[in-house]
Here is the input.
Amino acid sequence: MELFGVEGLPEVRPGDDLAALTAERADLQEGDVLCVSHTVVSKAEGRQADLADYDPGERARAIADRIGTLAGEQKDPRFARAVIEESRALLTEEPLLLAVTAFGHVAVNAGIDRSNVPDADLLLLPEDPTASARRLHEALGVPVVVTDTSGRPFRLGQRGVAIGWAGIPAARDWRGETDMTGKELGVTVEAVVDELAAAANLLTGEGDDGIPAVVVRGFAFGDHDASDNLFRDPAGDYVQDALEQWTYDPDRLRQKAGEDLYDEAAGEDRGVGDGGDDGDVGDERDGGDEGDGVRASDPDGSGQGSDPNGQRSDSEEGRQDGDTSTSSDGDTQ
Here is the structure.
């Protein structure tokens, strides 16, 4: 399997024909899969916004006040309002805003980006990333995966994930097949679109790399059952359920790990090094991701990167994906 970046894409503007721009620069072949960063998809679809467009309201002001108190600096309640409007639900409101988007993705600050957005303050996720992928798939004739970058529960660091896809199933369903010893697999469902997104992210990068689209060549889904279920149903998502009942208690966390260990290793939990934005309530991730948006404290650093269509940068580091899909037989959340 080979992967190569689509070089030379210009700064994408609202209304641009992203499929045509890509086709002019990529020799797409039958069997290829195109992975496209949501940043260029969102820009083409006009998903930019300015903070001045948002009237905070009481709830957003209260959130900004709480997070600002934790961070020791003022936070912008307009950003909190933007996150609320882009969310179906907020799983946590401090020390960061962990949101469930309208299409089921779980992300810090609802995936709103604040870097690499030259014509606005904010870049929102596509309203329906799978519909976006479908339009590109129909225009280009190859499977398309719309990607984003997010953090991971229980692990440090970010990786690429799929938020929309078309022309390819989301997952290989191995259930009913057998392993090397003949044992029947009972729960293994492999999220291949996430794996492709993560592989593509090695080329797109996280800063000013300027490569928002990657062609995957030689991938074979294989003779397996397929599934398009990627986002967990809230009724069976034990992590979401636990988060909805969770209360942020820094003293409790310090007691669990010890003050020194907590301060050194758990900064992401408080949003301390995740962000890189302006420090607004949602210092959303710079790179434009889920942002370090509303975390308790973020280092200043809005907008690193010269990549016009950039993958989000540091800020998104804080972003955590609440989705905990099974990755191997027997694993649950």
Remarks:
- Confidence is low (pLDDT under 50) at residues 268-279, 282-333.
